[in-house]
């Protein structure tokens, strides 16, 4: 699914996401794809995370490549959804964002049998970059 190179995920995020996935009796197809993306990710310790990568609790600016409109969202766990500014890791857009770095693109299945290509424009906030290694 990836358009270029590998994705990165922190060991903390990997452990938390896979624990949530493991608790689900039957994974929906979009979560099976998330699981496959996690399998191909390069796992790094939080303090080794490149500062331009989307991690959990990051605030990211992205766009769909068929539009110039940018979208800003914070990537959160499902139980932490608080506002329309948040996107769950288990939503199609959230699953596509995790692990990508600025400039990377990823084609990802969306609702209504569509596939869209997401491009990371900026990572405004990343917990690891700010020294928050246990969030």
From TrEMBL:
Q: Which residues form the Transcription elongation factor GreA/GreB C-terminal domain?
A: 50-125
Going by the UniProt record, its keywords in alphabetical order are:
Kinase, Transferase
Mind telling me which Pfam families this protein's record contains?
GreA_GreB, Rnk_N
The record's InterPro entries line, in alphabetical order, gives: GreA/GreB_C_sf, Rnk_N, Tscrpt_elong_fac_GreA/B_C, Tscrpt_elong_fac_GreA/B_fam
- Indicate the segments forming the Regulator of nucleoside diphosphate kinase N-terminal domain, all copies: 6-44
Record-level Gene Ontology MF annotations: kinase activity
The record's annotation in NCBIfam families points to: PRK05753.1 (NF004396)
What name goes with this protein? Nucleoside diphosphate kinase regulator
Taxonomic lineage of this organism? Bacteria, Pseudomonadati, Pseudomonadota, Gammaproteobacteria, Vibrionales
Q: Which gene is annotated as encoding this protein in its UniProt record?
A: rnk
């Amino acid at each position: 699914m990836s358009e270029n190179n590998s994705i990165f995920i922190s060991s903390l995020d990997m452990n938390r996401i896979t624990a949530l996935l493991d608790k689900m009796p039957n994974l929906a197809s979009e979560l099976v794809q998330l699981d496959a993306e996690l399998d191909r990710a390069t796992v790094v310790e939080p303090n080794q995370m490149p500062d331009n990568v989307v991690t959990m609790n990051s605030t990211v600016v992205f766009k769909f490549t068929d539009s110039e409109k940018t979208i800003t969202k914070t990537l959160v766990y499902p139980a932490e959804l608080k506002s329309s500014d948040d996107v769950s890791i288990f939503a199609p857009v959230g699953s596509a964002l995790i692990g990508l770095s600025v400039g990377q693109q990823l084609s990802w299945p969306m609702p209504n049998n569509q596939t869209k290509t997401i491009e990371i424009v900026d990572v405004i906030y990343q917990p690891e970059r700010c020294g928050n290694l246990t969030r």
